[in-house]
């Protein structure tokens, strides 16, 4: 928390913003601003003279231009679901939060081109719903989809549950509309599958976390809707058995695998003990679990038979101990809930340190074992809670506080915990940031992981587009 009162907003600036956005477009009262000044995890608290709520790209551009003229920093904010403080302002004067929440229109759906053009403030769940209403699929799916917005998802290159089949947010985007730090606009809402015309600027802003410009709209790729699905929750004896099961499904029909999620016994126990209505559809608890989700866009794909055949072979090989197959959409949702409630369950179970890391898929079992052992050695009694996207190598290598240890004492060791996990990740050729981004939490790690020519190139790009450093300061790049 800041140890001083935030500076009073300049009345003339507030008036200027209201002239652009109208009375409903500017929040200047402390009580109205407060929800935009902290992150979902409660790690960061910042300041802002106002929250700007533009309703069009022209209004975003006008606000950005005024901020550039006045030297006011801008913190773009979507659903404010960042796990790394990427949308939270710092405790510094002369900055505004720019919320994209009012820019939430679907501009166009084209089922011939299989594209959907949407504004940055559209909530992911609504994008999924609109696609479904048109008989098609927008496949990006993650736990925060009821709150997270398209602009933020693209700005962080979000991954989620279906990356193993459809890729990250970057692969689901064809074109972007972006307001640059000087207020000019890149009008790049092209629906082209092939377009080799110089630098692919759209990809510069995906994953840039709002440090190079503000995404205001995007052309998204659509896919045929699933006409057949099959979902199962499996108890497996080890991390290696989980990976062996993934390989079996990939060999049997790689195109059918929509998601392949790993969960530990500790994490599942937290869900079952803290989440109302969560039940385990297996005969007994296990140390390791896998959620397998298959889908096909054609009827008669035989996914149920495929699921049963692969699981039967895996059971004979000792790779699966027990399995429950969803017999209805309600059962499928209940199985998925056991996976999706992991973050909330950890929050209810006490303090946790989150490590969003990735390694080559073949190294996932070793990552889980070695990182868990390293965390227990660092803080005896701590509870490793690894879970996530085994199919694409992204595991959330989280650690819950030991019983009897205060949350504050545990969280004071956050960077020590991240360091020991990252030592394992580095040794296995992985990344310290898989899908959550860098934000405020991990900027100090960039030098050791991306230093030299790579980080220097990032800084030169930042300096070229945002020479005054007004766009989402304090995020992604460490201080030079």
Automatic annotation (TrEMBL):
<feature type="domain" description="FAD-binding PCMH-type">
    <location>
        <begin position="44"/>
        <end position="225"/>
    </location>
</feature>
<dbReference type="InterPro" id="IPR036318">
    <property type="entry name" value="FAD-bd_PCMH-like_sf"/>
</dbReference>
<protein>
    <submittedName>
        <fullName>FAD-binding oxidoreductase</fullName>
    </submittedName>
</protein>
<dbReference type="InterPro" id="IPR051264">
    <property type="entry name" value="FAD-oxidored/transferase_4"/>
</dbReference>
<dbReference type="Pfam" id="PF01565">
    <property type="entry name" value="FAD_binding_4"/>
</dbReference>
<dbReference type="Pfam" id="PF02913">
    <property type="entry name" value="FAD-oxidase_C"/>
</dbReference>
<dbReference type="InterPro" id="IPR016169">
    <property type="entry name" value="FAD-bd_PCMH_sub2"/>
</dbReference>
<dbReference type="InterPro" id="IPR016171">
    <property type="entry name" value="Vanillyl_alc_oxidase_C-sub2"/>
</dbReference>
<dbReference type="InterPro" id="IPR006094">
    <property type="entry name" value="Oxid_FAD_bind_N"/>
</dbReference>
<dbReference type="InterPro" id="IPR016166">
    <property type="entry name" value="FAD-bd_PCMH"/>
</dbReference>
<comment type="similarity">
    <text>Belongs to the FAD-binding oxidoreductase/transferase type 4 family.</text>
</comment>
<dbReference type="InterPro" id="IPR016164">
    <property type="entry name" value="FAD-linked_Oxase-like_C"/>
</dbReference>
<dbReference type="InterPro" id="IPR016167">
    <property type="entry name" value="FAD-bd_PCMH_sub1"/>
</dbReference>
<keyword id="KW-0285">Flavoprotein</keyword>
<dbReference type="InterPro" id="IPR004113">
    <property type="entry name" value="FAD-bd_oxidored_4_C"/>
</dbReference>
<keyword id="KW-0274">FAD</keyword>
